[in-house]
């Protein structure tokens, strides 16, 4: 008997919990929901908290309340000046009308596919009327405002709000990039050769000026050294002359000793002379 009561109590509890779980549901601060009754719209709930529904009859469909992002596939755009660009964009949007969003787009996956298509068309429409230089300048933000406005007009009846549309990258196609790279490299090489030639010319000018200054300095130094040497020799000759006048015999003796030292210093020097003849050896007598 006790066993049957336990089973009955467990069954009743399970049914109760099942009914409670079917009646109550929770919406978090980042969610919003629409309630359908047999597929027919009943109401929208955007306030977070605990809410109720009729079990087995009403269905709750949740949608994100946050700002959502779409990374579109790169689009190839041809500008007004016939330049081809590969443009990579990202878009941010919010679901502001869950019912309209559900009717037109159903879920986020289909919304992203639809938005990507709309953004691609808007890019081709707006950027196709823009030159390559504008897209690389600070005027690109104005162009993207036009793209954003065009996208907003296209999704006005889809229950979403476009927050931002931005270009992440705008590159040339690989085949064009290689040509541009070659042109840029050739231009840089030309500039480098021109700068190198100017540097070499300047170096030659500096070297020539340095050689000229060196020649002038050396000539001036030689001139001064010649003058100094001449003055020294003149002074020396004057001193010798004064000394010669003071003591002529000592002067003759001193000059002869200097001559002996110079002439007879090598050990292998041999003179065969008669000391009694000539003036050179007169002090050896």
Describe this entry's structure for a reader:
With 285 residues, this protein is α+β, with helices and mostly antiparallel strands. It folds into three domains: 49 residues, no CATH class; 110 residues, 2-Layer Sandwich (Tetrahydropterin Synthase, Chain A); 46 residues, no CATH class. Helix content is 55%, strand content 21%. It contains seven helices and nine strands; from the N terminus they run αββββββββααααβαα. Strands 6, 7, 8 and 9 form a four-stranded antiparallel beta sheet that branches. Helix 3 packs across helix 5 and helix 6 packs across helix 7. The N and C termini lie far apart (168 Å).
Q: Return the string of H and E elements.
A: HEEEEEEEEHHHHEHH
Fourth-level CATH superfamily of the largest domain: Band 7 domain
Number of domains: 3
Q: Which ranges are low-confidence, i.e. pLDDT below 50, for 5 or more consecutive residues?
A: none
| Proportion of helical residues | 55-70%
The largest sheet, given as strand count, sense and whether it forms a barrel, is: 4 strands, antiparallel
User: Cα distance, first to last residue?
Assistant: 168 Å
Question: In CATH, what is the class of the largest domain?
Answer: Alpha Beta
Strand percentage lies at 15-25%
Number of strands: 9
Task: Give the overall pLDDT as a whole number.
Answer: 79
| Mass-distribution shape | rod-shaped
